[in-house]
Amino acid sequence: MKPHPATKIIHPEFTVPEGFAAFPTAIHHASTVLFEDVAAMRNSHQAAYTYGLHGTPTSRTLEAQLAAIEEGKHCLLAPSGLAAIALVSLTFLKTGDDVLIADNAYGPNRELGQWLARDYGISARYYDPLIGAGISELIQDNTRLIWTEAPGSISMEVPDLRAICSAAHARNVLVALDNTWSAGIALKPFNHGVDISMQALTKYQSGASDVLMGSVVTRNHDLHVRMEEVRRLLGMGIGMDDVYLILRSLPSMPIRFAAHDQHARKIALWLKSRPEITKVLHPAMEDCPGHEHWQRDFTGAGGLFSVLFDPRYSEAQTDRFVDSLTLFKIGYSWGGAHSLCVPYRMKNIRSNWTAQGQLVRFNIGLEDVADLIADIEQGLATLSK
Ligand SMILES: *Cc1c(COP(=O)(O)O)cnc(C)c1O
Prior knowledge:
Low-confidence stretches: none
Structural class: alpha/beta
Bound molecules: pyridoxal-5'-phosphate
Radius of gyration: 23 Å
Strand order of the largest sheet: 1-7-6-5-4-2-3
CATH topology of the largest domain: Aspartate Aminotransferase, domain 2
Largest sheet: 7 strands, mixed
Shape: globular
Number of helices: 13
Number of domains: 2
C-alpha cells in the first residue's frame, strides 16, 4: 500500500535517530495511550498507563520526586492545592461520618467541610489547633478524618502533630496534614505519625507564581489506591506542561526555601523590635503559639509569617500601611520570588478570635532584605501620619 499525502502526514515514515540524552524529563502529552496489541489493552491495569488523564511518564516522575521529598512512598497530583484537599476529604468521608478540621486550616478547607455538612450529611467540626492530646475528647465513633495544618497559614499556630496523631490512631482515625508551609523540606510528616500529607505545589514547588497544582503523599498503599480511584472518578487531570514547570523548579527548591527562611527570620526579628508591632507570629519565635512543636518537629521555616499591630492602630491605618508598601505587593498565594502582604479580618474568619490588633501577613520573597526592611520602615512611618 502506498499511502496518500494525508496519511503520510499522520503516519510519518521518519524515525528519530537514537543517541539523544539530556537532563529534562520529556513532556509526554497524551489523551490516548497506545497498547501494543489487544491482549495488552485487555490486560491493562490501573498501575500501568491506560489513558492520559491518569498520568504519563512526565507526571509519574514528578509524583515520585514529591513522594521522596516528604519521605513518603506514593504521590498523587491534583489540579490545585484545593483539589488535593477535596480529594482527601471526598475519599475518606461518606454520609454519616464526622470530620474534625483545625480552626487555623486554609479557609476553603473549612468551607469544604461546611458544604459536606450542608449537602452530604457529613458532620464537620472545628477545633483549637493547639488542642494536642485533648483532641481525643472530640473524637466520636463516626469520626473518620482529622485535618491539621502546620502552622496555620494566617494565624501561624503550630499544632502538636504527634499528640494529635496518637490520639487519632488510638481510635482508628486518619490524620491529614496541609504541609504547604514547610514545602516538605522543613517537616517530614510521616515521621510524626501523619497518614496523608497534602501540599499546594502552587507555592514553593512552582516558586514562580505561575502554576496551580496540588499533591497528596502517603506511605500507605491502601490509602493511596483509594484516593487514586476517587481522583479517576472525579476526572481530575493535570496538564503536562504545568507538570514540566514544576519539574523545572524543583531542583532549586531547597536553596530557594532556605533563602526565604533566612530572609523571613531577619525581617521577623526586625519587626519584633518595632513599637508598632505587638506580636510577630513566626513559628521560630518563642512567643509564637506552638513554638515548642516547631522546635521539636521542624528543621527550618518557610517565608510566610504574620504580625499583630498595636491595637491603637485602626484597620484604616494598617490598610494604609499595606497600601503604602512598594516592593510588597497585595495578593494571595505565596512561595514565589516576589514579596506579598495581605491584611486579614480575623474575626470574620474565626468567630472565636480574641487577639487584639490588626493582623497582617507577609510572604517574604527573594528580594534584598535591606530593601524589604526599608520598604516596611517607610510604610510604618505612614501610621503616625
Ligand atoms: C494556597 C494554599 C492551598 C490551596 O492551593 P491552591 O493551589 O491555591 O488551590 C491550600 N493550603 C494552603 C496552606 C495554601 O497556602
